[in-house]
Amino acid sequence: MIPRLYVTADLHANGVIATDERATHYLRNVLRRQAGDPVVIFNGRDGEFEAEITALDKRAVQLRLARQKRAQDSVPDLWLCFAPLKKDAVDFLIEKATELGVSAFRPVFTQHTAATRLNLDRLTANAIEAAEQTERLTLPDIHPPVSLDQLLQDWPADRQMILCAEAGPALPIADALQRFTSAQDKSHLSDEKRSKPSRWAILCGPEGGFARSELDRLNKLPFVTPVGLGPRILRADTAALSALAIFQAVLGDGNLRPPPSMMPIGQGA
């Protein structure tokens, strides 16, 4: 298997770069790679390149770049706003949400949030590893945590928020998202929601759920669409990942149709 690594250096054909401490340790001490071995690298800006190890020492691995393997692409402009969780749960959430194409993580403290601090360096490392393993070409932004008041105060008016509410008569998330794609009657939607937004966010609460006052406030905002995630009470990390998977299937890059040559017979355009 050819290792795939994230680097921070600028990438271009025939260039030479040196890896950072993390990548150096992985190539030398974990994979035991040698000079002449191939590597695939990306930096989140310049696409993905084939490269070859030309030298190794304790401080750095030198790589010579060959051809660009893939041009740079992007993921949907989708934020995940979540209440900080305990260490193992938040590590799992960052890893899997990165795999599912989140463009930015926005931790938010709510009234019932139990965790009080986040190690942003560790979360960034988790996101990098997830991007490396899933052939993603970008890294998600990871923002410092803020209060719910701060999050809403600075909220862009053109970013649609999908609120994962634990209780109440909220529309199932798939049905709610489908309404944004329908060309049929949209009289039930506010002016901000009548055209399909291009900027999105999913907001999930803590293990104890949102306070009633928080839900009341959120439901009054024009950019908020409350949705349900089914009849069962889900753990906070499960709720977030379920919402992301459904979003990707309905509105994200997960709903892209295969090219005609890959479609079953009889299922053309």
Reconstruct the topology from this structure.
Blueprint: E1 4-6, E2 16-18, H1 21-30, E3 38-42, E4 48-56, E5 61-70, E6 77-82, H2 87-99, E7 104-109, H3 120-134, E8 141-142, E9 146-147, H4 148-153, E10 159-164, E11 171-172, H5 173-179, E12 199-204, H6 212-219, E13 224-228, H7 236-250
Parallel strand pairs: 1-3, 6-7, 6-12, 7-8, 7-9, 10-12, 10-13, 11-13
Antiparallel strand pairs: 2-5, 3-4, 4-5
Helix pairs in contact: 2-3, 2-7, 5-7
GO molecular function: methyltransferase activity
Function: Specifically methylates the N3 position of the uracil ring of uridine 1498 (m3U1498) in 16S rRNA. Acts on the fully assembled 30S ribosomal subunit.
Catalytic activity: uridine(1498) in 16S rRNA + S-adenosyl-L-methionine = N(3)-methyluridine(1498) in 16S rRNA + S-adenosyl-L-homocysteine + H(+)
